[in-house]
Amino acid sequence: MKKKDLITKWLDHEQLTREELKAFKNLDAYDSYEKISSNAKSFKAPKYNIEENLQDLKVSLTQEQRSIDTTKKFPINFLIRIAAIFILGIGTYFMAFYNSDTITNTIAGQKTSIELPDQSSVQLNALSSIRYKEKNWEDNRKIELEGEAYFKVAKGKTFDVHTSSGIISVLGTEFNVKQREHYFEVVCYEGLVSVTYNKNTIKLPAGSVFKVQNNNIVNTTTSLVKPDWINNLSSFHSTPYSYILKEFERQYNVTIIAKNIDQDKLFTGNFVHSNIETALQSITIPMRLKYKIDNNNITLYKE
């Protein structure tokens, strides 16, 4: 009998003849077949309770279905939330970008020039700042000013300059605005400006000066064609000495200590922004004062 047929007969548990059994035992893999047969006899199938197992299967299938449903819903809800956050974030970004203010500041001793979106120009004096909305300038022609600035407005252009003391409305003109503590001044050099102060509106033609000093309104004139500070010179006419000292501190970034000096006295004169010694002599000699420089501190005292 062939080897294959002999093994098949043995696996089918058919009775082998003496010759066939002898031939089977002489096979090289006889020991392995015997081990397989021995292990197979010891194997017992587990016992099953059909009713219990059927119930467990139903519970398992129900839980699995819920898990699948949740998995299906989660990505959709999650993606919706992510999309909403993204849209909100983009909207907020562009809203902030569109509505953000353009701000320019100067420090003590510094001046700077800015060009507005309509090609008008602004020159900013020391320790001053302007704020405006560049992105929607056509719809919001408003500038907020703190300190002092000289405006040269492009022909046919108009905007409002807002200060804590008043509002200046312009149309193609040149003018200077100074807003300091207890001091407000508007000088028109060309064209016409409209100044609103305490709900009253004043029209200033070229060469006119509107000044409020300690709540007192003064109307004067000027022959200048632009402010002196543009050329690094601070000029004053009948101005309290305390204002001169404050302006000096702004231009030279120093601290002035005035000992036993009447700072309410009126001063008419000027000082340069390029040489501190020359500037000090300009504001002390007319007032018969002496000075001492100690780093960034300057002490003024009587002769």
UniProtKB/TrEMBL annotation:
GO molecular function terms attached to this record: sigma factor antagonist activity
Coiled coil: none
Alphabetical UniProt keywords: Membrane, Transmembrane, Transmembrane helix
InterPro entries: FecR, FecR_C, Ferrdict_sens_TM
Positions of the Protein FecR C-terminal domain: 235-300
Tagged with keyword Iron: no
Residues annotated as domain FecR protein: 105-193
Stretches that traverse the bilayer: 78-98
Keyword Transferase: no
PANTHER family hit by this protein: PERIPLASMIC SIGNAL SENSOR AND SIGMA FACTOR ACTIVATOR FECR-RELATED, PROTEIN FECR
Name under which the protein is recorded: FecR family protein
Organismal lineage: Bacteria, Pseudomonadati, Bacteroidota, Flavobacteriia, Flavobacteriales
